[in-house]
Structures are given as C-alpha cells and as structure tokens.
User: Which sequence fits this backbone?
C-alpha cells in the first residue's frame, strides 16, 4: 500500500509563488477536457491542480513543463481559476529546485547574457535592418518598432520585420528601433518560472524605453504585446502598445495604405493564443486580410476563442516536442481540411512552429505559412 | 424658547460573543462612552440582544431615569426593532433610541483600529441621540384584498390558500393561461407523478374560485401606496376574444392561416395566431397573438368587389396549405378557377407591395390554389333545405354567384339559361385560351351539386314566360347580362366579312364554323376587341390588327392584355377610326380610315377623339370585327311592366338590388351595362344576400359598404423598404407565342409549387409576426367571440399586500457555443426534453431525434450555465434531480444508454437520494466531469454520425470522448429578463445573482425590504416544486397574518413643512417619488400625506428655503452625528 499524506507546506509554497488561485478549483475537469494536449497525449490539468492542492505534486514530473499557456482552460474555467498562474508557480519552485528541462537552460543563459534566447550576439540585434534606412529611435520619433528577438535573428521570421518596415515606409509612419539596447520582452521566460530573469529583462527594457522617450510601441509578437501591455505597467512601464495587425487595420481603414494587388487564394487565419484569447484581438487581423483583393478568408474548425494553440507558448518554443505530439501538425491538418492555400499568422512563434511542421509533413496541398504583414506588404 | 430637559443617556456596548469583542476592546469603548456629554451610564455586555441584556437596558431606564439610549452592537437591520421595543416597554418613547453598528461596519471588517472606530461610532450615536425627539407611530387599516403576481405553482398555491381563508385575491398572469413552468413539465421527481395531473386540479380551482379574480394576459403597470394600502394598475391586454363568449372549442385555430412556433412547446410544435396555449389552459379561452398592424393595410381586400381574404389565402399558400387556400377563396368566391384566370384583379393594382417593388401576382396565385384542387372531388357541405324556391334568369357570373350563395342558404334554386350551356359570357364571351371550358364546367358542376338546377336552352319570354316564373317562385333574380352587339354606324357595315365582336366570339365558343380572312381588322379598344383579335389570329388570320380611335393610354383593355396581343404579333393602330367599308368583287376588300386627334374630355372622362380632316387612308382587309361594346337584351322583362333605364338596362334599388316589382331582383351587366366578371359576381352575391333577407322578412339590403383601398405615405414606404428587401414578382411560364397562336391552348401554364410559395411569401401582410387580420377566425366562431376592436383595459385595484411569484426563465445555452445548442439538431435543453417526453407534447411523449428515430444513447450534461462564474455562479438546485428523472424516462421509453456528466450530485430532499440510487440501479452511467465541448467532428468510425461529448472522467483521470445520439443540457434557472423592471415597480431589491432579495436569507425568506410585498418561488431563488409550494404557503400566511392584525404601524419618520417658510414653489412635489406632497390652495402651502411619505428625504434636500424637515433626520441630528465622525 502506498500512503501519501497531504503536504500543506508544499501547497503553501506554491501559493507563495503566485498560485493563489489553487483553492478556487472544484475539480470539475473542464481544464483537462479542453486542454489541446489531450488531442495528442494525456495531460490531466485537473489532477495536477489537485495534487498541488494536497501538496502531492511531483516537480520532477515533465507534466508541469507541458503547459503552453494557451489559456483555453482559463477562458472557460467555471471558477475562473488562473491555471496559468498555478503552472507558473509550480515551475518557479521547480526551477529553484533545479528541476528544469535542459533545453530551457540554454535559453535562460542566453537571455541572461545577451538579452535574447537564441544565443545570438547583442551587437547584431539590429543587423536585420541593415540597408533599409531604419533610424534609431529618438525622442521625437512616433513609434518604437520592437520586432521581438525571433524576427531579429531568425532568417525566416526576419521577413516579418522586413515586411513591417516596408509597409511603415509606404504609409509614411515615423518610427525607429533601439537595436542592441532592446532586450527580450521576457514574457515566455516568466511563464517558465524564471521570475527574476523576467524582472531584470523587463527593467532593462523599461529603462531603455524611458531613456529614449518612448511612448508608443509597435510589436510583431503577441507575446511582447501581452507583457508590455499587461505586465510592464505593474513594473512602472506604462506605454501605449499596438500590435502590427491593429496598426494595419487602422492604416487600411484610413486609406493610408491600400491593398491593390490581388491574391487569389484561400487564406485561413490562425488566432495566436496571446493575441486572441489573452488579449481579445480577433477582428483586426481578419479585417486586414479581407481588405486584400481576391483573398478568400476562410475559418479553421477551431477559431476565435476556441483557437487551437500552435504549442509554442509558455516556453515551449525552446523545448522539443516529439513528433506525433505536435499541436502545430494538427493545426496544419485543420488548414488542409478546409482547403486553405495560405495559413496566415500574426505571431513569430506560430510561424516557426508551423514552418517546422511543414518540414515533416508529406500531404498534398500543404498551405504556405505567412504573417499578415507579409501578405499586406505583397498586396500594396 | 423651550427649556432643554436634562439629557440622561445610557450606552450599551455589546460583545456579540467574540464577534465584536475579539477585535474591539469593548470595555474601553464603554469607558469612553461614559465620558461623553449627557451619558449617565455606560456598560458592556456579552449579548445585548439576549433576555438578560434587554432586561439590563430596561432596568437602567427605570433606575437611572434614562431618557435616551444607545446600543452599540450589530446592524439596525438586525435588532433596532428589538431595542425600540425594550425602550417602549420600559416607558421610553422608542425613537429616543439610536444604534451604533460596531459589528458589520467595524469589528468584522477591521483588525487594527477597530476599537478607535467603535468609539467614534458610539460618539456619533450619542451626539445624534442627544437631539432625538419622541415620535408617535401611526396606525392605518389594512385593505383585505391581496394581489398575487405570477400564475405558476407558487402564485396558484398562495392564491388558493388566501382565497380559501375567505379573502379576495387578484391573480395576475402575463401569459394567456396560468400554470407557469410546472405545467410544461412531464413527470416530477422523485415520485414520478405527472405534473399536469397534480397541477390542473389546482388550476381549475383557481379558475372557478369565487374569491379569485383571475387576470390572465395581464401585467401590473403601476404600484403606489404602502403596506396595507397599495393601489395597483393592471393592464389587461386585449385578447381580441371575448372571454365571456369563447367556449374554447378551437374551430378558430383550424381556420387561422398563420402558423407560429408554440411558446408553450418551446418551438417544438406549432400553433396558430389565434390559439389556446395548451388543452388544459385556465382560462380555456382563445387569444389572438396580434403584434402589429399589417404594414400594407391589406388594400387588396378593400379593392376587391367581393372583399376576398387575399392576405389569408396567400399566407396559406406560403405555408403550403393549398387546399385550405382554395377553401378560403371559395368561401367568398364561387368561381376561384375562373377568377384565377380572367379577373382583371383590382387587388393587384391596389397591392401596396407595388409601392415597394412590384405587386403580388394575386390572380395567378388564386389560379394556382384552384389548380391544386380537383373540383369534381370537392366535398359538398351539409345544407338544411328551406323549401323556398328562387328562380335565376341567366347563368353568367352574376347568376352563378347568386345561385351558389342562395343554395348554401338552403333555398331551392332553378336557373334558366337561353344558350345550350351554362356560363353566360364566361363560356360564350371569353375564348378558350384564356378560360378552358372544362375548368368552367367543373365550377358550374359544383354549384349544381349544391342543389341548383340549371335549365339550359330555355329562353325566358319565348320558351317560358316571365310571369309564369314569377308565379312559381318566391323570388326571381334577373342576371341576363349584356349580350347584344353594337353597330358601328359606318357605311357598308352590311358587307359580308364585317362581323359584330360579341356574336363572333359566341359563335366560336359555340363551335360554329366561323371563318376569318387573312387580313383582319378589329375595331375597338376594350377586352372584347383584344379577345376578338387573338381569336382571329388563332383562326388563321395572318395580318390581324386592332383599330382604335384614341391612344394607348385611353384603352379600356387591361395593359396586360394589350401586351399579350402585341406579343402575338397583332398591331394596334391608335387614333384611327373606320369611315367606310369598301367592297371588291362582292365582298369586303378595303376599309377607309381617318386619323384622329384627342380633344377635350367627354362625358366618360376620356379625351374626345376628333377626326383630322384630310387624313383619310385605306387599308386592305377581308374581315372586320366590330367590338364596340355590348348592351343588355331586356325586351323580355317588359311583360312584367318593369321600366328600363339608359341603354336598356334594368333599374334597381342600388342598396338592395330590388326592382320595382316585389320579389324581383336584378344584377350584373343587365343592370350596370358591360362590366367585369368580378363585378358581376359581386352583384350576384349582393342580390343573394338581399333575396335571403327578403325571404326571411328582414328589411335592408346586401353587404355593407366597404372601405376604399389605402395607399401608403412616403414615410411608410421608407419604413417598409428598410424592413423588406426588394424581391420582384414571379411571372408564370407562358406557352411559346408561335405554338400558342396555332390553337386554343391556355396561354399560361400556372406556377409550380415552389414558385407559388415563393411568390405568395412576398405578401407583406403575411410577413408580419402574428395575426394578419384576415378575420377568418371570426367566420368560424359560432358564439361570435372574436372582437378585433378590443382595447387593452386598465384595471385599478386596491390591495393590502402583494405576493410576487414571477418565477424564472431558462438560461439560453447557445451562449456556450462549444455545446452546439442551436447548431446541432439533437442538442436540446431540459425544458425541451420535458415537452418531448410529455404525453401531451409535440411527439405524444415519444422520445426521438429530429429525424424521428429513437436515440440509442443520450448524454445529460449538468450545470450548464450554473455553478459557472462565466454565467451564473449559483447552483440551480433542480438539475441533478431532473437529470436523474430524464435518465429514468429515457431508459423506460427507449432503453437507450444514458450518461450523466455531472460535477457533484446534489440529491438532498425527501426521497431524492433513494431516487438517485434507483436510477443508478437502472444502469445509467455516471461520468464525473464538466463537459468541454460537444462536436460532430468524428475521429473514428464509431463517432461518425454521432454527437461526441468531450469530458475528463475525473475519477479515471482520463480524457474521454463519448459518442451519443442526443445531448440534453441541464440549463440554469435564471432571473427573468425583465426582473430589474419588476423589482423597481414593486420597490424591492435584488441580490447580486439577480433574484429578488429577501429581508433575511435564513430567517425571513418571504418578506422584502418593501413592507407588505412578499416573494415566493423561483423569483426568490431557484428551487424545486416542494420548496416552492412551501414558500408560497408561507407567503400566503404572511399576507393573512397582516390581515388578521387588521392594521399596520407606519413609521413616524416623515417630512413636515414649516408653513411660515414654505413659498409654495412646488419643487418638492416634483421630486417626491411617492406622491406624498401636494399644494394646498389657495394659500399655496405644501402639505405632507403622512401615510404616503416614506421618509426618503428627497423633498428636504430639494427645498430651496429649508422649509421641509424630516423627523428623526433633522439637520441638527445629522450635522451633530457627522461632526462627531469628523472630529
């Protein structure tokens, strides 16, 4: 017989680490039933919470690192339990105890040393913009364009930044970048439980933004958007934050850019978790896409509030996911099902994950993955 | 100046066990109080509200001669009344008491500083009570009547209890019947007795109880007054059915063409616009669901000479009820097939859809309806014979219409027709291609089957004398039409090849061999001219033309006919008239014509054609048909000595159709001169009506005058355009021109079913919600209960108390999109299942899927919208139990596999747990977990065609997918949509969950913050039937106990006016929500009605001169209290 006595100290530790929501849970299991992981493998969110309630959770268990913080469970939880906070608290304790997946360690080291998770040099952060005539932000510049570490360094994701710059120039928007003075926004590393690292990255950014007189920040990544908008204010960083799809919608509505080149394709839009569920931005990207002549916008089976996560949030972007367990593969499958020729995204993580999925898929008629900004730049 | 009496204040600080004493140093507070001005004694005690605590205060009042008391304890809501009573019992005016709340507003909400705050609150109370004055309670009598709002089980039970106690109850129910949600339920848990079986006896008791005034289809609109003396205004909505006359027979529903979703059956069944919600309704009286006026004003009906119910039959066609449509038409029109082809359709000209896009194709739809019926198979109604004999001379439309109506009255009708077959102009004037003889024949045969004898080939005046007829029949109707042709009056009209139009048509219709040449000219511009031209074309005329002396605009023929004639290659020479006919080799060879111009208007209102001198020209012709018009041939009536009018017509009394000779009536073309078929039918019907009256000795004439068709204003058209999207008129298929002119086949082929439904659906009257005012019900209602003129009625009642039992509504689960309600056919709500399973429901109690099959597996999802912070946080309390009941019923009726997806089972009542066990014994599967979604996306073969329920079985810690055929959502009980307005109307509060707030959740769950207003049932919180009945009985008992007391005390906290200062400006009167202030003339001074005043203070705050003060809340009292707090 195995006997397990409830460990109230363990529970209290989780609560102290930010998991106050724990005690609200009444164990209905909706979180498990809604969690996308259960489409590819077993993951009982509810059980993890119950184990935590009783102090019986095993921190070595890989399950605490699975959550992609997509927020679907939180959105529908009947007790409005902040499940992501509980997961974050568990990971925080896990990292303190050294129970951290290896792949994450590299990202942590890189972030701490170079301000980006990709092991790239800080000095090269503005290299992507070479030859584009992009100026360094000055106090009288309107927008700070903050491209996110991924477009800044990743050769594929870079095209998002390039497309955005091209559009901004055509629309005559006054913008600049901070290059080496930018740090990773820290959103995902915070979800990993590295609270201190997040704090230092955030502080560095806030100081840099303030030093340069930044008021408005344009971002390409919903993750940057989320933390700048919802988490930085508590740390003293109050800025106006706008996601590229929001700005594009505005520019098109005001007639400052005009998509004229037809794209005779069926395009499905994938709602990124951090743009959609976390920040309720669903319509602007669709409006932007619909303004492109000839483009037929279609919906994926799971869309809007019910969007299926690409699997890249919550630090999962730095972790390996076994083939056969990739949510991005399922999502491409949904795109195939509805006959999408292009799968439009609005998040660099989604872009990378879907592109990765394509490499290992052999079905006919696979869609191409394009950021909304790329599609717009091609049409104006 | 008054001498101030010495203040002797006692202060009592309560520990409330540890509730206060744990955080407040009560001894310190008491010590502090002792130091305050006027305080002679200050104590602390464990429980001030306990008997010893109360005694302590009482004894001190006597011993220390206290004249003011302060108790620092809980909220005044709890114990103000207690301590006021203690003061009164000890001989102190109860209003010389003040309470300091140091529990809810102090000890419970503070840790640090609670003692300091308690001291300040006590100081404030002491400073306030210093200026309290003795006030006298006022007593008023209680009105013995009681108002109950809501006729569900709670309202029914409370009404019966009170009525049985001998008091009058006004029971107001919004719906047409009482019964509430309970009457919709199938069997009730846990005893499984049928809901209707146990409720209907109570409903019927309510309906017949002498002490209950049942006001259904009514709503309370206004409430004023106060406990014991409320005044309420109740709007009794117009039912348009006289409840005193209606017998509930239901004939009207059958007649009504408007099909609507039944609210009672949650849209699973249909009802009509006139309906009774369910068979056991109380009262069992019909109601007309009349929501708006017909936007088009049904101008078609007014335009029709026989007032045909056009919106009614179009609606029936749109509903696919073709035979019913035919019957509706035939109810007023004995010749639907004929009119569906040849009527000139004044209705279409009037149709106000024409102002939006195009008028409805009313005539073509009439033809469609008639074509769907085999007239030869149509049943004949039972007719009671009168034995009275009526003769009709002439079997054209007027004669046939009169014969039809008189035969239906039971009279023995004999018709005399000179020509070989019946039908008059319909048969001998209208060509076959417009009206096939077989169709006309069938319609005439039907009239024969009503008992009408038609003697054809009998010419009155020749074969039988009119006098003989007059002597053998009690009444005679002359409708011989206008069959005489008119001469042109042109030189050489006698030439062979020149024919008269009406004789030409008659000859062709008789089957005589009539030849026309290759070049045919038809003279005239009426429909007869058109018929002649088209007939001539079909007889082989190659170059057929119409010669008309005026222009196109003046042509009497319908535009449609003119278009048809031109389509068939027939040319029209306008402004042309024949001058003479020129022979060539003994027959007609040329016609000399002259051009005309239009001059002044002539007597007919048309411009007079004036020949243009010198414009003569000739055209080669070999046949000329002169179709100038017809005249009646009335020589035969002269034997009766009747006088003739202009053009040989018979003169009649325009009201009755009676000629100068008693018992002899006339109508149709023989009276009016040549007119249309429908005018002739109208004349025949009018005559029949007059003859019937004449025969029964009643005075008066035919049908009443009808209204003129109304056009719409620009504004109204704009409104319609924003509401209805344009949709053009659907034209019938026509035979190809080349083919059709070769023979006499019918030109148009009629609508298909789909076309007819689509065209009929354009009718604007038919597109409104509810009654389209076709008045069909009125015709079928034997007791004459239908009253369209009925108005809403306002009933004013005076009552002593009010019980609100307004119930709940079911949460709309379509909001939870992932459950697919509204998207998947077989995802239904609990209430829908109740109807499905109910033996009196839309499926007669059979549980089946939308496709009619029995389900093999059913999932019941608990807590849909309940226990969920996204929707309703509370538990709806009844779902676990009814879910178990559903499982039992499904097992019993279908033997399907049943899954319960639950979170916690709550089975707490009498026999409930036992029922839970019983259902588990029946093999129902319990899966503990909240469902995340219901989907039809199959991942495996066994999921194909099923609804897949996704859930974590939390006891297995496994995510599972359960494929089922049917999903039942246990949807939450929620406050009604208008709960806020109702709460405001009755001045009661609501809790955060939206339901009405009780005075105390445990100890006073019936009364509200508004004295005299009680609540019972689900309007207070979700509850099952036993709890509802208990609460209803409790509410009745509260109301009755008020009556037993006979009088109520009115708080003396009221406004008073300083007459010296009041300027009579009237501002206070405007702000008083209770109407307690009124200006006393002539001085112009405001007076307060103490019974109405609630002491809210709005007037005092408004008064610009400070003339109004509120007792117990004087400026001095408030300012000192505030000063103490801001010290």
Assistant:
């Amino acid at each position: 017989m195995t006997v397990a006595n409830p460990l109230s100290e363990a529970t209290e530790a989780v609560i102290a680490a930010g998991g106050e929501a724990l005690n609200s849970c009444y164990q209905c299991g909706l979180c498990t039933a809604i969690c996308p992981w259960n489409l590819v493998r077993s993951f009982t969110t509810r059980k993890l919470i119950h184990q935590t309630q009783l102090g019986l959770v095993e921190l070595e268990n890989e399950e605490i690192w699975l959550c992609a913080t997509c927020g679907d469970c939180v959105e529908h939880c009947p007790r409005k339990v902040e499940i992501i906070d509980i997961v974050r608290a568990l990971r925080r304790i896990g990292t303190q105890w050294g129970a951290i997946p290896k792949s994450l360690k590299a990202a942590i080291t890189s972030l701490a040393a170079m301000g980006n998770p990709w092991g790239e040099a800080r000095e090269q952060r503005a290299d992507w913009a070479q030859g584009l005539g992009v100026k360094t932000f000055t106090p009288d510049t309107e927008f700070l364009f903050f491209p996110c570490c991924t477009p800044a360094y990743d050769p594929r994701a870079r095209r998002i930044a390039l497309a955005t710059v091209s559009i901004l120039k055509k629309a005559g928007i006054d913008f600049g970048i901070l290059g080496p003075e930018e740090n990773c926004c820290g959103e995902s590393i915070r979800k990993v439980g590295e609270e201190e690292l997040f704090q230092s990255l955030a502080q560095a950014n806030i100081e840099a933004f303030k030093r340069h007189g930044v008021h408005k920040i344009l971002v390409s990544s919903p993750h940057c958007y989320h933390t700048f908008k919802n988490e930085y204010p508590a740390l003293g960083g109050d800025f106006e934050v706008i996601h590229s799809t929001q700005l594009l919608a505005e520019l098109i509505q005001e007639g400052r850019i005009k998509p004229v080149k037809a794209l005779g394709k069926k395009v499905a839009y994938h709602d990124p978790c951090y743009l959609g569920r976390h920040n309720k931005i669903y319509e602007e990207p669709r409006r932007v896409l619909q303004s492109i002549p000839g483009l037929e916008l279609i919906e994926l089976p799971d869309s809007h509030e019910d969007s299926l996560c690409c699997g890249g949030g919550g630090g999962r972007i730095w972790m390996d996911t076994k083939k056969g367990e990739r949510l991005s593969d399922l999502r491409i499958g949904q795109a195939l099902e509805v006959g999408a020729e292009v799968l439009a995204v609005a998040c660099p993580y989604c872009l990378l994950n879907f592109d990765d999925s394509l490499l290992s898929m052999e079905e006919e008629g696979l869609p191409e993955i394009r950021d909304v900004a790329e599609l717009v730049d091609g049409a104006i | 100046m008054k001498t101030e009496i010495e203040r002797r204040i006692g202060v009592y600080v309560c520990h409330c066990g540890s509730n206060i004493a744990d955080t407040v140093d009560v001894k310190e507070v008491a010590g502090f109080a002792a130091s305050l001005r006027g305080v002679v004694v200050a104590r602390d005690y464990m429980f001030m509200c306990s008997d010893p605590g109360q005694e302590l205060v009482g004894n001190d009042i006597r011993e220390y001669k206290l004249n003011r008391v302060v108790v620092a304890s809980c909220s005044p809501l709890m114990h103000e009344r207690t301590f006021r009573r203690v003061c009164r019992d000890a001989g102190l005016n109860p209003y010389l008491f003040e309470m300091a709340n140091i529990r809810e507003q102090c000890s419970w909400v503070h840790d640090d500083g609670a003692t300091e705050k308690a001291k300040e609150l006590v100081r404030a109370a002491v400073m306030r009570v210093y200026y309290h004055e003795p006030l006298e309670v006022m007593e008023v009598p209680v009105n013995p009547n009681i108002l109950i709002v809501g006729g569900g089980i709670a309202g029914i039970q409370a009404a019966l209890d009170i009525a049985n106690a001998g008091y009058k109850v006004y029971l107001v129910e919004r719906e047409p019947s009482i019964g509430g949600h309970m009457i919709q339920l199938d069997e009730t848990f846990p005893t499984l007795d049928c809901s209707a079986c146990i409720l209907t006896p109570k409903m019927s008791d309510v309906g017949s109880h002498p002490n209950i005034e049942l006001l259904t289809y009514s709503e309370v609109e206004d409430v004023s007054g106060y406990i014991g003396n409320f005044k309420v205004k109740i709007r009794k909505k117009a039912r348009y059915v006289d409840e005193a006359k209606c017998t509930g027979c239901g004939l009207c529903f059958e007649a009504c063409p408007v099909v609507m979703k039944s609210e009672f059956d949650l849209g699973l069944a249909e009802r009509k616009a006139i309906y009774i919600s369910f068979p056991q309704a109380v009262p069992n009286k019909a109601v007309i669901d009349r929501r708006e006026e017909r936007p088009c004003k049904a101008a078609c009906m007014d335009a029709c000479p026989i007032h045909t119910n056009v919106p009614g039959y179009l609606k029936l066609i749109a509903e696919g009820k073709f035979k019913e449509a035919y019957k509706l038409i035939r109810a007023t029109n004995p010749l639907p097939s004929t009119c569906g082809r040849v009527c000139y359709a004044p209705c279409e000209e009037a149709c106000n859809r024409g102002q939006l896009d195009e008028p409805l194709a009313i005539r073509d739809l009439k033809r469609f309806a008639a074509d769907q019926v085999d007239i030869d198979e149509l049943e004949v109604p039972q007719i009671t014979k009168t034995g009275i004999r009526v003769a009709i001379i002439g079997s054209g439309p007027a004669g046939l219409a009169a014969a039809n109506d008189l035969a239906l009255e039971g009279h023995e009708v004999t018709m005399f027709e000179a020509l070989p077959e019946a039908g008059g102009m319909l048969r001998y004037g209208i060509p076959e291609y417009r009206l096939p003889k077989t169709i006309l024949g069938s319609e005439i045969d039907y009239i024969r089957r009503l008992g009408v004898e038609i003697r054809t080939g009998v010419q009155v005046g020749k074969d039988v004398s009119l006098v003989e007829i007059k002597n053998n029949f009690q009444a005679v109707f002359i409708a011989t039409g206008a069959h005489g042709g008119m001469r042109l009056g042109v030189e050489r009209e006698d030439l062979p090849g020149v024919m008269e139009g009406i004789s030409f048509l008659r000859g062709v219709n008789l089957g005589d061999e009539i030849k026309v040449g290759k070049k045919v000219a038809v003279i005239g511009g009426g429909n007869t001219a058109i018929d002649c031209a088209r007939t001539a074309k079909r007889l082989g005329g190659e170059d057929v033309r119409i010669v008309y002396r005026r222009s196109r605009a003046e042509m009497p023929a319908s535009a449609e006919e003119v278009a048809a004639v031109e389509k068939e290659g027939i040319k029209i020479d306008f402004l042309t008239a024949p001058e003479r006919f020129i022979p060539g080799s003994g027959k007609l060879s040329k016609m000399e014509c002259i051009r005309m111009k239009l001059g002044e208007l002539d007597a007919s209102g048309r411009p007079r054609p004036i020949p243009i001198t010198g414009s003569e020209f000739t055209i080669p012709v070999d046949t000329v048909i002169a179709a100038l018009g017809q005249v009646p041939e009335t020589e035969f009536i002269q034997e009766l000595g009747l006088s003739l009018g202009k053009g040989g017509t018979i003169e009649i009394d325009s009201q009755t159709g009676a000629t100068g000779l008693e018992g002899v009536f006339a109508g149709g073309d023989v009276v009016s001169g040549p007119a249309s078929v429908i005018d002739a039918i109208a004349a025949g019907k009018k005559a029949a009506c007059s003859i019937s009256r004449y025969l029964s000795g009643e005075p008066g004439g035919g049908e009443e005058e009808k209204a003129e068709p109304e056009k719409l204003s620009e504004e109204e058209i704009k409104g319609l355009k924003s509401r209805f999207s344009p949709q053009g008129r659907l034209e019938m298929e026509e035979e190809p021109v080349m083919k059709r002119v070769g023979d006499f086949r019918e030109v148009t082929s009629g609508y298909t079913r789909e076309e007819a439904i689509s065209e009929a659906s354009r009718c604007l009257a038919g597109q409104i919600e509810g009654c389209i005012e076709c008045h069909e019900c009125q015709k079928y209602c034997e007791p004459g209960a239908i009253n369209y003129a009925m108005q809403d009625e306002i009933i004013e009642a005076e009552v002593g108390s009010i019980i609100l039992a307004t119930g709940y509504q079911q949460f709309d689960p379509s909001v939870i999109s992932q459950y697919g309600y509204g998207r998947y056919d077989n995802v239904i709500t609990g209430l829908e299942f109740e109807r499905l399973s109910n033996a009196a429901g839309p499926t007669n109690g059979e549980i089946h899927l939308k496709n009619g099959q029995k389900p093999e597996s059913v999932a019941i999802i608990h807590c849909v919208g309940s226990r969920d912070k996204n929707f309703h946080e509370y538990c709806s309390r009844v779902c676990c139990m009814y879910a178990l009941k559903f499982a039992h019923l499904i097992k019993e009726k279908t033997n399907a596999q049943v899954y319960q997806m639950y979170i916690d089972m709550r089975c707490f009542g009498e026999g409930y747990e036992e029922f839970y066990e019983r259902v588990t014994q029946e093999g129902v599967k319990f899966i503990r977990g909240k469902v995340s979604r219901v989907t039809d996306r199959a991942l495996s073969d066994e999921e194909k065609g099923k609804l897949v329920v996704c859930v974590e079985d939390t006891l297995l810690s496994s995510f599972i997918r359960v494929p089922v055929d049917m999903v039942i959502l246990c949807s939450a009980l929620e406050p009604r949509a208008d709960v806020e307005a109702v709460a405001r109307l009755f001045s009661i509060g609501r809790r955060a969950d939206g339901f009405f707030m009780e005075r105390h959740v445990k100890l006073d769950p019936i009364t509200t913050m508004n004295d005299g207003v009680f609540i019972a049932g689900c309007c207070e919180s979700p509850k099952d039937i036993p709890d509802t009945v208990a609460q209803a009985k409790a509410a009745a008992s509260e109301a009755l106990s008020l009556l037993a007391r006979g009088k109520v005390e009115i708080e003396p906290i009221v406004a008073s006016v300083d007459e010296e200062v009041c300027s009579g400006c009237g501002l206070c009167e405007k702000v008083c929500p209770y109407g307690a202030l009124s200006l006393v003339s002539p001085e112009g001074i405001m007076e307060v009605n103490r019974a109405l005043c609630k002491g809210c203070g709005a007037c005092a705050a408004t008064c610009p001169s400070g003339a109004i003060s509120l007792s117990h809340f004087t400026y001095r009292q408030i300012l000192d209290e505030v000063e103490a707090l801001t010290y």
